[in-house]
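JOB MANIFEST
job_type = single_chain_structure
chain_count = 1
residues = 943
[input]
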Amino acid sequence: MRHFWNRFIVCSLVALYGSATAGEIDFYREVYPFLKENCISCHNKTTTKAGLNMETPELMIAGGDSGPSIVPGNSADSLLVEASAHSEHIEMPPSKNKTGARDLTSKELVLLKQWIDEGAESSAKEVRKVAWQALASTVDPIYTVAMTNDGRFVACGRANQIFLYDLATQQFVTRIGQGKGNEVPHRALVNSMSFSPDGTRLASGSYREIKIWKREPSASAVHDGDPALGTVASVLFSKGDRTAAADQKGSLLILDSLSGKVLRKVPEAFPGKTPMLAVSPDGEKVAAFSNPWHLSVWQVSDGKEIATQTSPDPSQVKVQVEEASGEAPAKEKMLVPKALAWSADGKAVLTASSDKEIRVWTVPAPGEAFPTPRPLSGSSAPVTSIATGPKGKVITGGEDNKVRLWNLAEGTIEKEFAAATVSVAFTPDGKRIATATDDGRIRLWDAADGSQLFDLRGSPEIAAKITALQRSIDREKLEQSWQKAQAAKIAARDKGLVDLLKKAKDAVVAMNKKLPEAEKAIPPLEDARVAAEKKVAEAEASLENPPEGKTPAALESELEKAKVALLTAQTKENDAIAALAAFRSNITDAEANQKKITDTQAANQKAIASANAAETAAKKRETEAASLLASAKKEASAIGSKPLALAFSADSSRIAASFEDGAIRIWSVVSGIPLEKASGPVSSAADLVPGSDGSFVSSRDHGGILITSSSPRWKLERVLGGEEEPELFADRVNAIAFSPDGTTLAAGSGEPSRSGDITLFDLGSGNVTATWNERHSDSVVSLDFSPDGKRLASGAADKIARITEVATGDQVGLFEGHTHYVNDVAFRSDGRVLATAGADGVVNSWDLTMGERKKKIEGWTKEVTSLQFIGATDRIVTSAGDNLVRIVTDAGAQVRAISKLPDFMQAAASTSDGKTIVAGGEDSYLRVWNGSDGKEIVAFGMQ
């Protein structure tokens, strides 16, 4: 009846709608879409209701609890057709289902029947094409952050864009991947990011693709001056592209900075000794100040002299009289030039001489004389350095070890503070002052109150060395802690063995005491048995040859009694023998147990000794690292060679100093962190200007220049997946991790509720080196390599964390303890502990040496969205949906909680020293905190 009704329904449909298609049905193009929409949600490998998986034709043919769901070539006998047609026996999908599945339409039923009748053949599965639409401008959450290992740069993904920030300067750097056409790096949300160990690459994951971005920094460059020019002094134009120089013959030279080519030469421009030179802010004029006192200004365009002055003041003589001491007659002393600078507006030149006076010379029109200068008085000693700043401010340093801030318009001193100087500089925004002294010290000051902000020393190399040594110290401390804990555990177990050993020894002693008695008991019992056997033999003999007076019945009775007595004797003897054997066996077992305990104790003692030795070795390594750290810090704080010039970047974020040893060192203005060091030839004088590309350019007395590296550019190096390889990833790339050696990239993805896939790539070629499909039963959402790179931990939406051996692909660890997604995984620096973050509001730490959970850490009210071990410590920084960034230890102790954040936090990261914490979330702000006290340093919004 069932088959008849099925045939009736199908035939009616065919009669009504005719043939579904003239050609063969393509399964994945025509049938799979409506099965996926209405059937596969309940019949897949994860949710296999009635034992039936309908994801492929082969699985439908294999069937479920009720047998095959389709019979190739025979739709009338196919259970799937009957269920879809809602026969009286079965109805699918159920009318009240929770997945939103609907009944198949009549056309879909005809297609299904025709496909089955044609043989239910599979076809090439088409990759679903996505019709991309622009994201709304209001969609800008931060789902992922990544930090370079040196803690310098942090990137965050906002919607489908990538933003890069410099933590040292606390500045936005760039949008990675955004070109001239305003294109964006991904068309879908950025789900994952990771920097390579060396920080030169950034991998970003989105829907079905990974993009690898490569940093392309420029190198510092040195260009030597032409010896034939005989240059003895030089300064740079504001852009650094040209150099004004003086040669040994007193000529003024205008040079192309990069090529050294002479663009203009003015012979015999300077009398006397090597002049001081200064280029006007607009680059149109050059001022020269030389000894004997001589000030001149030249036009760059034609090399003509605008004006010259040969005395400190038109109304004064060239000399000043030095007071007589009483014993010596008064004598004349020539004024010596000390400093030269242009005003910020380029209308005046400022000079300082040995008479403590600063003179402001208004530059006249060509051919006219300098008017009487305006004095700036108030210095108690000669001024040796001058720098002009915004809003008519002037900063000076003098031989009285005082720095003074002047109001140029009013000619007054606004602030004064103690600081020895050979050079001064003003930030373009006027908020900071830098001073350099003969002893090599560079200091940064607050212009508002004269307070010292930083004593700038060290270099990036020394800073990196200090960070590495501190990490080594942390690692050795962690090793000591672990070895000490191991020794304590073993000692605790060993303590319990003492009682067991005593009991074993006591048992041996007690049983050895009873053994002689048991042995003595056997001979009498043996004699009794022999006697009983003799009586039985005598009774049997009497029965065969009855003695007189004995009846057979009496003799048989005596025989039975003898046999009973024999059995009793035998039983007693056997029991005694068994008891003796038991005593001996128990003694043997007790002695074996005693030996086992003794051997265990010996092994424990060796293990304790080994742990103690390892702890001692770690302590020794810590001490050695601490000594090296002290030396590195001493080196960082050491005063270098004499500074020759100072300059701030145009955005006031960086300060550079050019030194006599040929080096240029650059620091962050907001943090004092050393950013860069470039080396060039030794020089006794130098000038320094900021380049428009983020570099600094320094000229040397011999006419050569040194250029530091410019701001790095990030370019797309490779696309993995994407439109060219849409089948590489089934869905979103939720997790990315670089191997510690930077040669391998791991990606975690998978189709939600169906598969959790892991793919490994060779970073050099981009080729797939391993594919572990269906390593999880749901999407992989987190990955982390072990410190040695030999294992890969993965967390997934299937609530499970796994560890895979990279070389073989074998699973070597499985950890079940979460009741929701495993949002993140992280190895501790020693590889002995794995931490997992759950959407169940729990962090679990797992002891990998024991293969068990170390601690279930609670305290969150919503999902824990990310975690990371801080450097080589047991501290973990976490972000969570309860607006919380929290630091805990892997033993469960809370270190710090940054609470009351404005929105759901999605990702957090920390520098290896824990001094800087960053996190982002739904409100689109990337926040930066001081890891020591939890105070917010800066918050970056959408640029």
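[summary]
DSSP finds seven helices and 58 strands in the chain.
The first helix runs from residue 2 to 17.
exit_status = 0
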